[in-house]
Amino acid sequence: MANFTIADVKALREQLGTGLTDTKKALEEADGDMEKAVELLRLKGAKGNAKRADRSAAEGLIAAKVNDNGTATIIELNCETDFVAKGEKFIELANQVLDAAAAAGVSNATEALAASAGDQTVAELIDGVAAVIGEKFELRNVRSVKGEKFDIYMHLTSKDLPPQVGVVVGYEGDDEETAHGIAQHIAFANPSVLNREDVSEEDIARERKVVEDLTRAEGKPEAALPKIVEGRLGAYFKQIVLNEQEYARDPKFNVAQVAENAGIKVVDFARLKVGVGVEAAEEADA
């Protein structure tokens, strides 16, 4: 007769986020010893981590916090299923990773994975929890945002899931309501950079060639090409430059004008969305 109850299985599953069958088997093998069952599940999971390396981790969550040093940190932590993404163990892990990345002052995922998380690295922390739960986990993005003040906006695409889109805005000034409105705008409009000057010369040259080729293909007069190309480049900048985008709440103004009218200035921002770029990365690795 098994030396454990259904309540023991439930408690262990809630503690570790493991599957029902694996949890029962571990308790059976451990003869009801909870600590031994946890160790068995960890060992089994560690062996499976390598096998899961090629799986797609397109679910997960975004988390962010304001730090004490004039920065804020935002991360994207991924897993394989939305069931795991909304579990307490995964959310707890995300908060631990966020705290470690913020404490280390890192600005990308590679640096964050090497950061300290207690007596282990962030990479080891993630691998340990992934081994127990039995899914592939991936810290895909970490960004650091500077500013005097910050607004954090977390967008829920489903009430049953943790945030799937997150925005941090670093700004100067006192109008918190407008800063929050701009953060919501960023979540919707997905700008790439703050100012036109932040667009790389390579990107501008590539876009210029595209619009020149398009304009010539349309049979426009050669003499009119420069003006038409510049106009179309302006439209390109309005798509990707935050300060030049039409403000979502009032398209009569661009974001820079809205900020100026409110007496604030956006100095930095970051926007992350769960799963963005996953398919492209997998195709590149294939």
TrEMBL record:
Occurrences of domain Translation elongation factor EFTs/EF1B dimerisation (ranges): 72-275
Its job: Associates with the EF-Tu.GDP complex and induces the exchange of GDP to GTP. It remains bound to the aminoacyl-tRNA.EF-Tu.GTP complex up to the GTP hydrolysis stage on the ribosome.
Compartments reported by the entry: Cytoplasm
Cited Pfam families: EF_TS
PROSITE patterns per record: EF_TS_2
Keyword Protein biosynthesis among record annotations: yes
Top-rank taxon: Bacteria
Protein name according to UniProt: Elongation factor Ts
InterPro entries: EF-Ts_dimer_sf, Transl_elong_EFTs/EF1B, Transl_elong_EFTs/EF1B_dimer, Transl_elong_Ts_CS, UBA-like_sf
UniProt cross-references to PANTHER family, sorted A to Z: ELONGATION FACTOR TS, ELONGATION FACTOR TS, MITOCHONDRIAL
Single GO term (MF): translation elongation factor activity
Region named Involved in Mg(2+) ion dislocation from EF-Tu: 81-84
Keywords: Cytoplasm, Elongation factor, Protein biosynthesis
Gene name in the database record: tsf
Family statement: Belongs to the EF-Ts family.
A single Gene Ontology CC term: cytoplasm
Organism annotation: Gulosibacter chungangensis
